[in-house]
Design a protein that fits this description.
alpha/beta; 6-stranded mixed sheet; 206 residues
């Protein structure tokens, strides 16, 4: 049976708060890209901690990527999901809603809830880098765009996906917490939040 670990909104809030200073000092983001649906809530919470007096809020854009698939379960009310083999793009960037016309020359923070197989993160970085390259060629620009990554949890396991070596060498990857290879249940996935919090209270803090 897959071991499930329950994480509360309070814990997510504190993980974002604890990571904010490092993100500000090292990544200096001026745009966040949340990977849906797990990256939405952490990105919004994080934005409050990244806000500085007299500075505007950091814009948040969203991309939708699907990798997980539901597996057969003996309990229909408690479905089990596992990483699939192919990333499906369900939503991409809408530059018409941004003051910035492109990604060129920006410090961009990609936010997701968990780094499991790393396949989704690899896909996101690769495709966004392609967008930057295309936009830079069209604009005749040589400005540098820096991508960084923040996740709430990194699973300590062999990864199928790979991130750019320069990103890892420059330490532009931050996980608030590294955990064992367990199934993490986040509060935004819950249909009964009281039961979810009760289960979380009986477990170790993640």
């Amino acid at each position: 049976m897959v071991e499930k670990v329950y994480v509360t909104y309070n814990q997510v809030h504190k993980l974002c708060q604890a990571s904010a200073d490092q993100i500000l000092s090292e990544f200096k983001p001026n745009l966040m890209i949340a990977i849906g649906g797990g990256g939405y809530v952490p990105a919004r919470i994080l934005r409050s901690f990244l806000k500085r007096p007299s500075a505007p809020n950091i814009p948040i854009q969203a991309i939708g990527l699907s990798l997980y698939e539901q597996l057969p379960s003996s309990n229909p009310s408690d479905p089990i999901e596992a990483p699939g083999t192919k990333v499906t793009r369900t939503q991409w960037l809408d530059f018409s809603s941004l003051e910035m016309s492109s990604l060129i020359g920006k410090n961009i923070l990609i936010v997701d809830e968990v780094d499991d197989t790393r396949t989704t993160l690899e896909y996101a970085v690769r495709e966004l880098e392609k967008d930057v390259e295309t936009a830079a060629k069209e604009a005749g620009s040589k400005e540098s765009t820096r991508f960084s990554i923040f996740v709430l949890h990194n699973k300590d396991k062999t990864k199928k996906g790979h991130l750019p070596q320069d990103m890892m060498d420059d330490r532009r990857y931050l996980a608030a917490r590294t955990v064992s290879d367990v199934w993490i249940c986040y509060p935004w996935e819950a249909t009964d939040i009281d039961e979810h919090d009760k289960l979380a209270a009986s477990q170790a803090t993640y």
